[in-house]
Amino acid sequence: MRAPPISPILERQHPDGFWESPGPGYGRKYTGTVWSLIFLDQMGADGNDRRVARACEYILAHTQASNGGFGASGSVSERPPPPSAVYHCLNGNLLRAMIDFGRFEDERVRRAIDWQARSITGERFDGYFRSGTTGPGFGCAVNEAHPCAWGAIKALRGLAAIPPRRRAVHVRRAIAEGIEFLLTRDPALADYPTGTNVSPSWFKLGFPSGYVADVLQNLETLAELGRAKDPRLEAALGWLLSQQDEDGRWSNRYPYSGKLWAEVDLPGAPSKWVTLRALSFIRHAV
User: Fold this and answer.
1) Tell me, what DSSP letter sits at residue 164?
2) What is the DSSP string of 111-166?
3) Peptide bond before residue 81 is cis, with ω within 30 degrees of 0
4) Strand partners for 86
């Protein structure tokens, strides 16, 4: 907590708990309030630290829409953000952070979990918007209403943080649907539905991770949900191993260089963060 890259983030926090400017905190990328908390979680920050606890409370008070999901808005005037601004990627990322930081029992977190699960399965859910989450099965306006695999990965990471015995029936159904969706395509190809070409970002392993997902985060998420040895992941495992350098390390090809409160890695340089991610998956897969 006293060393980079965590300490520079905490040093820039406002005493009230936000970063950059008050309000829902989506702006600016990637130093606003929601991003700072998401990255603190991924970097292993201590949820008992008073500054982290203050940030959690600030987000719960300012970023949750009336439908329970966390909204992507940086406008100070939008308190709370509208339901049409809730997306799987942000909600999943913040769910993961809140649960990792010990907020699972908070009723506001439970509401975000409920939104996440029901928006995936569609059961007793009618809050879809043409400008946001457009339908069940990860449909998203940002992906031209196609089901978004990046959003699915973030959503499942959030739900995966719930202790298995504490997962409600509709949460388990949402997880099952998400797993099957991710396995409809070979992660080594990542040719999930989209109105454009396959994003090259899938194949740039990096750290930390915002709304973009890569092949490895897809594998990590499936492994956390018990699918590390699924035969449909064999090609992706082979691809991951092919990215290892001669010294056994993996490089950071998506480090958000110049966009964070502090640099994590030099672009393209060997990375302890990405290497740890890769080895953690391989341990479960082989």
Assistant:
1) G
2) HHHHHHHHHHH-TT-----TTSEEETTTEEGGGTTSBPHHHHHHHHHHHHTS-GGG
3) no
4) 71
Domains and CATH numbers, the chain: 6-285 (1.50.10)
Print the SS3 string covering 80-100: CCCHHHECHHHHHHHHHHHHH
Question: By three-state DSSP, how is residue 284 classified?
Answer: helix
pLDDT at position 78 is 65
Q: Bridge partners of 251?
A: 270
Q: What is the pTM of this model?
A: 0.97
Determine phi and psi for 119, rounding to 5 degrees.
-70, -25
Question: Is residue 79 scored above 90 in pLDDT?
Answer: no
Separation between Cα atoms, residue 85 and residue 5, nearest integer Å: 30
How far are the Cα atoms of 60, 103, 181, 242 from residue 158, in angstroms, in the given order? 15, 12, 16, 29
Look up residue 79 and give its DSSP letter.
Answer: S
Burial class (CB in 10 A: 0-12, 13-18, 19+), 115: buried
Whole-angstrom Cα distance, residue 75 to residue 188?
38
75: pLDDT strictly greater than 80: no
CA distance 282 to 142: 32
Burial of 245 per CB tally in 10 Å (0-12, 13-18, 19+): exposed
Shortest CA distance to 210 belongs to which of 38, 59, 85? Answer: 38
pLDDT 10s digits, 160-204 = 999 999 999 999 999 999 999 999 999 999 999 999 999 999 999
Residues β-bridged to residue 270: 251
Q: Using CA atoms of 57, 259, 90, 136 in order, give the dihedral in degrees to the nearest 10.
A: 180
42 by DSSP, 3-state: which?
Answer: helix
